[in-house]
Amino acid sequence: MGIDICHKHERKPVRNKPRSKDVYLLLLVKLYRFLARRSGSKFNKIVLKRLFMSSNNRPPVSIARLVRKMKLPGRENKIAVIVGSITDDLRIFEIPKLRVCALHVTARARARILKAGGEIMTFDQLALKAPKGQNTILMQGCRTAREAHRHFGPAPGVPHSTTKPYVRSKGRKFERARGRRKSRGYKN
Fold first, then answer.
1. Positive or negative CA dihedral for 58, 16, 44, 102?
2. For residues 164 and 140, what is the distance between their CA atoms, to the nearest angstrom?
């Protein structure tokens, strides 16, 4: 009789490579895998882990957030590092000179950063300039900014829930019965 081997622990749910087949991303992974192993720098380990992430876990960072975070004391002349996209924000008019490194920068955001005298670099350029992440600020966008997150949480309709219901429309006829009005049973 053979031994019944338990296979349920073999697949780890954590990623150790990106799902994407993008050759340029895979080259960056190869570079940062080497740097994370050989430099012993925590910065490189974090960048490598974020390169593996799904797009939902690499939310975009707007220029407005970038400017706000880089204005904090002690952050002048440092490189903002975003493992994801940088997008433009029309609500901000003046942007200072920024040094940024990102996977992707939208055309309008790129034009505005360069017009302000800023610098945009790729991760392979960053690896040459700051192999251990010296003078860099790692940043992320807000992961819960997606509209889908409004529907997560305790069921809509239970007491003290602010979860958004999946409803066709907002009006008199939609989800306004028991539990929503005093005249229809009770009001939560």
1. negative
2. 25
Answer whether 118's CB lies under 8 Å from 99's CB.
Answer: yes
Distance between CA 76 and CA 70 in Å, rounded? 7
Q: What tokens appear for 51 in the block? A: 């390169």
Dump pLDDT digits (tens) for 133-184: 999 999 999 999 999 999 999 998 888 899 999 999 999 899 888 888 899 8
What global pTM score does this model have?
0.87
Strands 99-105 and 79-87: parallel
- What gap in Å lies between CA 103 and CA 105, rounded to an integer? 7
The closest of 46, 26, 18 to 136, measured between CA atoms, is 46
Alpha helices in the chain (DSSP H): 23-39, 42-51, 63-70, 107-115, 123-129
User: Which residue do the tokens 């081997």 mark?
Assistant: 5
Give the pLDDT confidence of 36-85 residue by residue, as tens digits: 999 989 999 999 999 999 999 999 999 999 999 999 999 999 999 999 99
Distance between CA 88 and CA 105 in Å, rounded?
9
